[in-house]
Structure formats: structure tokens, C-alpha cells
Amino acid sequence: MAMKLKERADLYRMMLLIRRSEERLQKLFADGMIPGFLHLSIGQEAVPAGVSSALTEDDTVSSNHRGHGHTLAKGVDLNGFFAEILGKATGLCKGRGGSMHVADLAKGMLGANGIVAAGLPITTGSALAHKMQAKGNIAVVYFGDGALAEGVLHECLNIAKLWSLPILFVCENNGWSEFSPTERQLATSLDKLGKAFGITYKEVDGNIVDEVAGAAGKLITGMRKAASPAILECRTTRVRGHFEGDRQDYRDSDELAGLDARDPIRLAGETLREAGLTDEALAEIAADVEAQIEAATEAAVAAPLPEAGDILADVYTRAEV
Ligand SMILES: Cc1ncc(C[n+]2csc(CCOP(=O)(O)OP(=O)(O)O)c2C)c(N)n1
Ligand SMILES: [Mg+2]
Question: What is the CATH number of domain 5-304?
Fold first, then answer.
């Protein structure tokens, strides 16, 4: 079913929210305001925007180290998100998680994760819970091509099929795992793995948001009706370095120069204009997004750091005996 213009404009808005948020984080990081590492998903925004458009608040997602887009698209509070990444007490995890460990269980965001492939077993467990609760909810795990060679992926594909779990495996294949191209790490391909385990597999251009949303919507509708796993492989582009500060000397200049033509936001803007959305409407979306980010940044910068004395709060729980 073709999407309405309003729904497509909402996808564009979400992608822009992710892009502008990360551009702001990039600046804050350069100014020394963000502790730890920062991995930006610039160029990959169409994947979470498209997938999340088919999700409800009760569906769950988990993510990896490049998880800002996954988190924002699941609908977490923008102020809490910025404060978390700045390590502030008002953050979604009270400033304890930071960029690679943002979580918001109330929104079904089970967490970003600094360990490659570690979101997979967490999400498989969540999918098992959804199946037992039988309310038609599903779980989504976002992972990169770097996770394809990890043993735990193979275990999760196996158990997801064996137990008919409602889990959507979303691979963001950007061709790079840190500083190594995918083909140097994987002897097979995800579609072949899907076939081996008997799991439905679909490949899309991960930089065309309508394509991601359409494919995810179709797969998820089927998964809600009859609990079952599916794989969505999204071919996408990592524009920035592996982390902020990575100069990307190992990448070909032609590859880097070609990234702009594949920019998912530019592509969506062009098709929306062709479909009749006016320049004024697009500018209004942009202004709205900028204002939200400005407010979230200001609040996060002004917020207090956590109290040192609270360092062990929420870490241990007293066992009931
Ligand atoms: C188990 C494990 N091995 C290695 C690392 C170091 N590491 C961090 S990110 C990364 C590559 C991830 O590549 P990919 O999954 O394709 O995600 P991308 O960075 O391309 O988004 C590696 C090897 C890690 N964090 N965890
Ligand atoms: Mg990758």
C-alpha cells in the first residue's frame, strides 16, 4: 500500500531529527563536552526512521554502538537523550550510560551496546517474552555487518527459527567494520545465512527511506499475525569515521566523494518535492527540528552532573530472602 504524503513527510522529519542531533553532538564532542567515544550514524538515518515507522511503543528494539538513530526513532524524549549523552543527572539513564548505553525501557528501547552483536541475545530474549505474552508485539535488533562473523548471531538465528520468535534482524550493512571492509571478515552472506536457517530474508537500499519503511512494514505485519523471525538487510553508507576523530585515511577518496549522492535525506527531500510537498513545508520541518534540538542542548548543558555519592545507586539490588 502506497504511503500518504504526510507519513512520508514524517519519515523525513525523523531522519532530519537524527541528522541534526548528531551534527550537534559532533560539535559538543569537539568542544570536549561529551565523555567517551562518539560513533555517528550520519548517512544511515533512513534505516531506523523506516523501521520504526512500523513499530508501536510496546515493540522493543535494541541497538549497537552506533545507536543514536535507533534510539531517537523509537520515540525517546529528546531532552533526556541529549542529557544522557552529556553524562548529566537528567539523562535517560541518569547520566550513567552515555552514547553507547542509552536505554529507555518505557519506550521499548532496550539499550545501545558497546559490545558488537551483544544486542542480539537481549533482543532474542525480548522476542521470547513477546511470544509468551501473545499480544502481537515484536522485537527488533539493529546490528552492523561487523556482527555477521560473531558466533552469537548464528545462535540467535537458530533459536529464533526453532522457537518461531517474532524478531526482526535488521542489518545495517555499511561495508565497514571499524577500519576493515566486510568482505575481509565474512566467508558467506546474510541472505545465505537466512536460507540456511529457513528465515525470510529481504534486502533493501537502506538509503531510500520509503523502501525501508515499505519492506519493514510488510515483514512486521506478517510477524505480528504469526510469530516468526525475519531478516532485513539494509545497504547503507557510513559517512563519518568509525568514531569521531577517525580521519578515514583507509578509505578511497572516490568512495568518500560518492557519499553525498547517496545521502538519504537529500534523496527523500527530492522525492517529497516531486510528490508535491512545498519548499515552505520542508523548511517548516527543518525549523521545528532545529528548535527542538536547540532547547534540548541548552537544557542538557545547564543540567547538573550526577552526584559522586550516588555512584552505586541503581547498580545493586538487595536480594529478597
Ligand atoms: C565483541 C567485540 N569485538 C570487537 C569490538 C570492537 N569494535 C567496536 S565497533 C566494531 C566494528 C563494528 O562494525 P559494524 O558492526 O559493521 O558496525 P558499524 O561501526 O559499521 O556501524 C568493532 C570491531 C567490540 N566492541 N566488541
Ligand atoms: Mg559496518
Answer: 3.40.50.970
